[in-house]
Structures are given as structure tokens and as C-alpha cells.
Amino acid sequence: MELDGKPKVGMQFDNLESAWKFWKSYGGKMGFGVRKDFSNKSKKDGAITSCRFVCSKEGIRRKHKRDYLTVNPRQETRTDCKARIVLRHLNEKLKVKEFVEEHNHVLHLPETTHMLASQRHISDVQAHQLELADESGIQQRATYALMSKHVGGRTNLGYTRLDMKNYLRTRRQKNMKYGEVGCLMGYFQDQNSANPLFFHKFQMDSDEQITNIFWADVRMQLDYAYFGDVVSLDTTYCTNNAHRRLALFSGFNHHRGVVIFGAALLYDETAASFKWLFEMFLKVHNQKKPQTIFTDQDRAMAKALQEHGSHFLRDFKACMYEYEEEKEFEEAWNVKRCLNPDVDIIQFFKHFERVVEDKRYNEWKCEFEAREKLPRLRCPSSPMLQQLAEVYTPIILDMFQDQFDLFSACCIKQRRQSESLIEYVIDMYKHKGEWEVLFHTQEKSVSCTCRRFEIFGILCCHALKVFEANDVKLVPDQYILKRWTKMARTGIIFDVNGNEVEEDPKFSHTLEIRSLCQRFVKLASEVTGKDEVLILRSATEEVIKKVEALRLGKIHGTNESDDPIIPSSNDMSIPTGIKKRVGIKRRSRPKSRVELQLRNRKASRSRSHPTFTHSQSESTDIGASSLVQLENSFSFTRLLMDQSEGSVSLGALEFGGDKL
């Protein structure tokens, strides 16, 4: 039966579904909406005995006794249209017994029929595409425009933007059907299924409600094992509709890209919460303490850290932030979508995963560039630069070459020697300050008062000047930190139980699945003829049946389910809910103590010095370290290094051992 034909009395259909599909197609062609009026079923076998399909404008709106209370009533759409088709069951078929063609209203244009409710439908394939776009962080407006382009315009899409919005909202509501606790535990359950080494912990109050949440996936554990010598802890983000703060443990990889070592959602910022947070952080990382941790020096945080660390290190030259303005910082981190105060807990984790994945992919881009392009040496004949070009990553090599360029401006002002120790006093051309450098002739070791190597892990220009004076052409091995080299990620990492930590234990299986997906997509895109489509469809359906049968055979007799394990309230160790916190919705990141002080400091300087120049800036930085005068201005970092105006507001906590 052709779906674009005109109904006729006597036409037959195999079932109700085919009859309805025909009537809906006819309505779309003619320009009117359709709906089902009624259907009768047999009491014996439940088969359809008769039914009637009508125009969507059939009937009239019923009056209600409270209609007079309606201020703005909806416009009338019913016109008591009599257009209809009546079918009756006869000889195992549905036969058309009556057909009324005439309408008492204006029919829609072909360009607008796609807006009729009966002509709008989101298919399974389209629904999957919408879900992927939503999980990828694409805005609904952009998603709708992209989908329309794929099918040649909005008229061919089959649904409106409002339909898409309603579908995604309904999907989010279904995802939350088990409540926040059930969904949260389901999310962590899925992560553990993907990799058993995924770590997560809850902290609960006396009412068994979740207050704080900490988690770290396997990649975070590996990153900390390789680059966890210096850690930055930031808690200045209010993340979701529960008004919880996002605490991020982050650091630098060997390409100076951001890596994350762990994350937490904190109910409050008390000493007890921070103490629990640091305990969980050390637990997941096998009790390995960072050499230095940078914080916003919150008093509660400081109190908690004192129980795990030795003392405060009030030096900010290695601060993790290089962004002067809040907007630049947020754009660099790309956490704006995570900080939306309207998102629920599940949406937050999806947005957070995407941000973390973007940061990790940036490392692969840097790795590709390092292997694809040869390093550019400013002095190609230098043995030292040739040596480091083989081991350093490009960005670290550039940082070293900056110091290599500066050492030509260094001058040896004094030289005192005693046995195997030589003491140098270095100054620099057109730079204020002096630096003392100790050189041990036997060990070829050097120590400078600027402490650049201890802070950045890269030799300073003063040390390079001393190496030149002692005819040291290559950098000693002890001054080439592995964390800055191309081999930084080599080595086997073990967890608390002594098991090897693998980022993806199913890596080979994942590669095979990706390869199959690419082959299927390529095959489907190359199919052109109708016969080829039928062959591909039948083969696909056969494969699906075999895979489903195999899957059912494997799980036969088990209690496996896709639903999360819903906790029982009788278990005192199981949370009964997520503790709610009253707060104010924020669209921007709340400023930390240091940012407020820096803003006030800038304002006071601008008021007192309306024509502020660079020379005046140098004259006011009396108490700053001389190293500040040599470094390229990292803007926000340089402000943090300014120790001339009272107490500092950010702090780095040293956990023990030598500083980096």
C-alpha cells in the first residue's frame, strides 16, 4: 500500500499500525493534523475490531464552569471538522468503511506541515545524536542548527527546537529517577566497572547525609605519581544547585599543561572538611605527600594542613596561576559550564569529565608537536643546548634558552675559593641586585641564592655563568629533572595493594571496538542502491540477534542490571541523601582573599598614581626579590611575588623534604 495515496472505501490494511501510518502520511501531504478518536477491541483475543482516525480539529472545546476565572485563555484550535476515516476488522484485515474528505478549515502549506504535532517525532537515531551533543557541551541552538543542515533544512528534520528541549529535559528527569544519592552512586558504580582502581569517598554527617565527596580516576593517580611534586589546591568555585564548592588538586605536566590529581565537592570550608579532604587525597595517592602545595591560605585549610605538613613556605614564585584577570583564568580552565548554578549533580559530573578530557587531549597535541617538529635552538653550536634538546620538551627547552640568553648579561663581580668550594658574586648588566653562587668543583654542583632551580626545576642564568667560568659544557645529570623531560611518563606505578596501575585495562578491546565502528560507518556511507541497503539492513539485524543471544547467555542466572544499587536506609554506613546547603546563585567565580586584596591594592595605586609608569613600578617594589626583576612578568604570578606590602594572602605549604 502506497503511503502517499488517497484513502478510499474498501482499502485494506494488515494492522492498526500500518493504517495509522497511512493516515498520518496523508494528513502531512494534505496539510492537516491527525489523531486517533477511538478503537474497539475484542473481549476474546484483544484484537482491534473497529477504529476511527480523525482530523486534529475534530470536535469543539468543552466548556468548564471555571472558565470565567481564566485571565488569558488559550486560543481555540478545534473547528468541529468532520474529516475522518473509519476502519473495521474483516477477514484478518482492517478495511476502510467510511471516509470523509472535506475539511471546514484552512489547510496548512507544505512549508509549515512539519510543525503539526502529528508530524513531529524524534527518532531513536536522532535522540542518540541529541544526547551526544548535549553530553559534549554543545548548546541546543547550535545542535538544532547542525541537525537541520544534515537533512537539508528544518522542514525535513521532523521535530522543532521546543521538541528537542522537552526531550532533553525529560531525559534529565529520568536520569534523576533514583534521586541524587542513587544517581551519584550509580555514576561511581559505572566508573568502577570501567576501571576498578577508580577511587571515590563520601563524608557523612550524623544524619547519614552526604556532606563532602572526593574522587580521583586512574589517570589522576598516574598524573600525580609523575608530576605530584608541586600541587595547587583551589576552592574558589561554587559549582551547582547544591551550592557546593569544587576543590581541585592540580599541577603541571612536562609540557607545562594543567593536570588534575583529584577533585572534591565540599559542603563547607571548615577545618574538619579540609582535614578529611587531605586524608582522602593522601589515601588515593598511596600516602605520597607533595613537596609543596599552593593554597589560598584559608585559615581552616591551614589548620588542616598543619596536621599533615611541616611548615608554611611563604614563597610564590612557582605559583600555578599565570592569569591576571579572573576571566582569563576561567577561559583557560574552561570551567564555565561546570560552574552553572542550575545544573544538577549528574550534569556537573558530565561537564567536569568533558573539561578534564579537553585538558588531557591538549597533552597529546603537545606530544605530537614535540615529535613532529625539530627544536629551534637559538645557539645551534652550543653543546649544552644540543644536549637538552634531546631530553627536554619544547616548552621547557624554550624556558631554559631564556636563561641561556640572559647569562651573557651576567658578570662575575667577586670570586673566593676555598679548597673544592668556589663562591661567586654575580651581577647583571642593567639589572639591580647581586646573587651569590656556590660551586663545588668535584661534584660539579651549583647553588644560587635566587633559588630558581629549587623553585622551577630549571637552572638560572647565574648558575650557567658559573658553569661557563669553570668550563662545564654540559648540564650535570642531577640538574635535569625527569618531570620536565620527554620521558617523564615512563615507569611502572603501583597502587596501595602493590598492583600495577593501568589507565585502561581494556585498552586493546577499546581499540577493536573503535576499529569496528569506523568500518561500519565507512560501509554505511558507501551504500547507494536500494538492494545494497536491504542487504546491509538484514545482515545488521542478524548480527544484532546473535550478539544479544550471546550476551543473554553470559548473564543467564545472574542479577546484573543497568540500574544503580539503591542503598537501604537500615545500613548506617549508607547515605540517606545529599545534605542541602542554602546559598546564593552565582554566575561568576567568588573571589578569594588574595584576589580581593590585589584588587584593592590596584585601586589604591591607581588613585594615588594616575600616571603610573614602568619606572615608578620598579621604584615601589623595594622589598621584592631580585629575581622578580629578571623574570618575564607572568602578571598574576608577579603580583603574588610582591612581598613589600604586608602579609601575603596565598601560601605554599611544604610537606617535608627538600623543596622542588
From TrEMBL:
Database matches in Pfam families: FAR1, MULE, SWIM
Residue intervals passing through the bilayer: none
Residue ranges of the region described as Disordered: 582-623
Keywords annotated in UniProt: Metal-binding, Zinc, Zinc-finger
Regions of compositional bias (Polar residues) in chain numbering: 609-623
Domain of life per record: Eukaryota
PANTHER family: OS01G0519700 PROTEIN, PROTEIN FAR1-RELATED SEQUENCE 5-LIKE
This protein's name: Protein FAR1-RELATED SEQUENCE 5-like
Domain SWIM-type: 435-471
InterPro entries, alphabetized: FAR1_DNA_bnd_dom (IPR004330), MULE_transposase_dom (IPR018289), Znf_PMZ (IPR006564), Znf_SWIM (IPR007527)
Species classification: Eukaryota, Viridiplantae, Streptophyta, Embryophyta, Tracheophyta
